[in-house]
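Lecture 7 notes: from sequence to structure.
We start with the chain below.
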Amino acid sequence: MTLSALQTSTPEERSRRWDEEARFFDHLADGVDDSTLTIDPLALQRYSRPVLRKRFNQEFRFLTLGSLAGKTLLDIGCGDGLNAVMFAKMGAHVTGLDISAGAIRVAQRRAELNGVSTQTHFICAPIETAHLSADSFAIVWGDAILHHVLGDLDLVLHHLARACKPSGLMLFSEPVNLADPLRRLRSLIPIHSEATPDERPLVKAELDLVKHYVPNLRSRYYGLFGRLDQFILTNFNYERSSLKRRAIVSAIDSVDYVLLSLPLVKRLASVCVLYGQPNK
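Predicted structure tokens for the same chain:
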């Protein structure tokens, strides 16, 4: 399969998307203050502890990663470097990739302030054109990034599978919309969100495309009643919320974990964690 066969959007469409995404995230980066860049020790403690709770999306993903000591990790769409720096503090050698020059500058500054600049390397480029050596990463991590590149999802997955080691792990967490009635309802409700122009949740056909590049793909669904978490937590922050608020969120996410294990209920999830080894 040739790269030209994988490309689905035109060069003009791709260039427009790159420009729009870069401007959007450059604007967000302009508002970041250095005082917010230090990794919260409570968050580091939460994700570093030996017992991680599967009912929480991010804890489940860190559980799936296993020990990061000495591993090479590619963080695509790394943004301001929050995850990349967390990975580095856990012992990984991290390459962060993002299209926004502003976000990359913030990520580099975050790495410096947290003492992991020698363990991190940041690249400003689209995923489709980034120079990534074949079989060079033990882990490819994407946190809500694939739904930004739907026009070139095939090409993006091709590049990422090539960069991942044959025995490596590809892991993504993405918004999904797998129920037609919910998609139609969402299109009728004018809910404001901080979203770039072309993004939308993944649908089944796109999950099937991921499986083409990750044949042993496994998935875990989140966000049924967990959609309410953001309204319960203080400033969307679990670690800094009160014990009562954390207990409520924990109970909600426990119910979600049970319900979203049922085949018919999975279709109502708002987020899906996808992980497995690449197709080589």
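Points to note: The beta strands are 72-76, 93-98, 120-124, 137-143, 164-175, 218-222, 271-276. The longest helix spans residues 11-30.
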